[in-house]
Here is the input.
Amino acid sequence: MSGPDIQDAITSAHRDEWARVIASLTKRFGDLDIAEEAAAEAFATAVEKWPADGVPPNPGGWLTTTANRKAIDRLRRESKRDDKHKEALVLTDDDPPEPLGAIEDERLRLIFTCCHPALAMETRMALTLRMVGGLTVPEIARAFLVQESAMGQRITRAKAKIKAARIPYRVPAAEDLPARVSGVLAVLFLVFNEGYLATGADTDPVRHDLTAEAIRLTRLIRALLPNDGEVAGLLALMLLTEARRTARISASGELITLGEQNRGAWDAALIAEGHRLVRERLAAGVAPGRYQILAAINAVHTSARDVRDTDWSQILALYDQLARLDSSAIVLLNRAIAVAELDGPEVALADVDRLEEKLAGYHAYHAARADLLRRQGRSEESRAAYDKAIELAGNTAETAYLTRRRDQLG
Here is the structure.
């Protein structure tokens, strides 16, 4: 196997096995910090050994076994061990790794641990992105628009709090699930969004591993809470968004906007499943939550055979309904885009400009302004807005698209 092939194997192993290894070690040692450090050391060992020894037949098993040994070595160096650590050390270095099927279930437990309400919401998201999604600290920092050092400290404090508070590593009891699930959904939505438009400079612009993982875990949550409307809504939203994945990036690596996509390339099966979930929630006759409304908006978009057939009146009505639940600046920005289609760019630009104070550091705000200014023929102002959007954008495909649109200005 050539050097590039081995590097690809290591990259694939990190994508596929990181959360499994973390989950396995967390179950065994009861300590996220030990699990993360040992997993990182195992992958570092793979980078060192696999080019010389070859990729093992079972990369996940090799990584789990290596990580276990690294964790045991660390614990042996420490003078004090709690009962959980002592119990873990009863197992020998030669114990075989757990079957991957069992570890799949452990990942769901890992999510509930990372999303415990004792942690602040942003901390839950960051910790899950690190422990379950396998994102690096710089990638997570970009997703939260904070400094890398601050994000590293946030994750370190979160792990310490879980250990000090003895937060249990388990799926909550049935009576506790509804109260706990909203935080988990928020985390899964963020994981999905990081895959939908990846922020890492050295990553693919669309990370299917993250979107697929977010969908898989949301399906697991739905199996636990089949009657929860927001779980169904988030799953529908993810499916309707994922259905457009292959049509979203051009061969040259540039983002293709919704209006320019080849709708024949959309995944019809995912769209059908997403539409079915939306219809089921409408038929339930229960007032929808945020994710259900977002899913309904996506259902309207994906129902149109051509962008010219889009029912913008319905989309605006749904955004008005959403704004009553969530009047955040980002919701109002997206609402303004629908306003532009119905009432024109001048009216929409006035709505957008009112959001400047809250969204000055958000690239999509400047991209929306640039487009609205372009549509009014205000080329110089549009160019300046595109420049700001390009400066702030972290996704390579989005940057390429914004750059082309800017350079097309007269």
About this structure: The radius of gyration is 23 Å. Residues 3-245+261-342 form one domain. The mean pLDDT is 89. The chain has one domain: 3-245+261-342.
